[in-house]
Design brief:
With 156 residues, the protein is of the alpha+beta class. The chain is built from two helices and seven strands. It has helices at 2-28, 36-41, and strands at 46-50, 58-62, 86-90, 95-100, 110-112, 118-119, 140-146.
């Protein structure tokens, strides 16, 4: 009987430990240094890009396409090209397709779906999801809104 009680107490302690560990991830989601707050506070219908990871350093917000992030017109201009390290898609209907360089007509791309919402660190992403094609980080030069069927590679 004594041994049985001891066993129960140990089991309770183990369960408590699991519960505490389980609370960790949801607690960290509301701390600074993530894209969650940026996403929550952003107006629906737009995409946005940031110069640093975790959606720090806003480069611009766009409701439409910008086929050249390095020119002097549109939502992204001059020094906005080749510096983005995190992105948000809070569009109402479409996915955002990113390209290296200007023109937004390359086969090389990565898409950010509305379901994904944001990519908080583009150093994890590669053009066409192939490491050999190079990192998406600091190399986005244009974007378009597209249907899901226009995407073969998705940002994570
Ligand atoms: Ca950057
Ligand atoms: Ca532009």
């Amino acid at each position: 009987m004594y041994m049985h009680k001891f066993g129960s107490a140990a089991a309770v302690a183990a369960l408590t430990g699991v519960a505490i560990l389980g609370f960790g991830p949801s607690a960290s989601a509301s701390t600074p240094g993530t894209c969650w707050d940026n996403y929550e506070n952003m107006v629906s219908g737009y995409m946005s890009a940031y110069s640093a990871i975790n959606c720090d350093g806003l480069l611009g917000l766009a409701k439409g396409n910008d086929l050249n992030w390095g020119d002097s017109s549109g939502s992204f201009q001059s020094s906005d090209a080749n510096v983005a390290s995190s992105v948000i898609n809070k569009g109402n209907y479409s996915e955002v397709k990113f390209y290296p360089g200007s023109g937004a007509d390359s086969n090389f791309h990565i898409c950010l779906t509305r379901a994904e919402g944001f990519a908080s660190n583009l150093t994890d992403d590669y053009w066409l999801e192939e490491r050999g094609f190079g990192s998406v980080n600091n190399s986005i030069g244009s974007h378009r809104w597209v249907d899901r069927t226009a995407c073969s590679a998705l940002a994570v």
